[in-house]
């Protein structure tokens, strides 16, 4: 069971869409299906961005209620601020923290037509494998 399919689970936090406003992603539970994933990777695929600044932030929570920005020391890579000059890129950010719940939030400024993007959290290294898929 060392294959990727048995040890990784990809969850949407921001469903890919055209966006012009600030939004918080949906919660991703690292204890999904009793697998208790030890690692997480945030993947942000960006399509066309026509205007505005779209600033991404990885957030964490112990209780799925109180959210805080992840400290830079618990991230591998940098959270992007995307403009029309940086579109059509895939960003990857590693998470080294210990909180159970994760999500991606985006703050949008000066957007009329906005941009197309999403955010996914890849959960890895489950304590129980193979991963159960719904």
UniProtKB/TrEMBL annotation:
Domain of life of the organism encoding this protein: Bacteria
Record's protein name: Uncharacterized protein
Query: Organism, per UniProt?
Result: Streptomyces coerulescens
């Amino acid at each position: 069971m060392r294959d990727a399919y048995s040890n990784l689970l990809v969850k949407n936090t921001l469903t890919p869409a055209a966006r012009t406003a600030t939004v918080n992603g949906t919660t991703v539970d690292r204890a999904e299906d009793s697998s208790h994933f030890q690692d997480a990777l945030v993947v942000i695929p960006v399509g066309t961005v026509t205007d505005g600044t779209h600033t991404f932030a990885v957030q964490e929570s112990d209780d799925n209620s109180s959210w805080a920005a992840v400290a830079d020391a618990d991230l591998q890579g940098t959270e992007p601020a995307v403009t029309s000059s940086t579109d059509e890129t895939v960003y990857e950010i590693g998470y080294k923290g210990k909180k159970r719940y994760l999500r991606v939030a985006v703050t949008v400024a000066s957007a009329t037509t906005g941009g197309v993007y999403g955010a996914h959290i890849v959960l890895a290294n489950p304590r129980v494998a193979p991963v159960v898929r719904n």
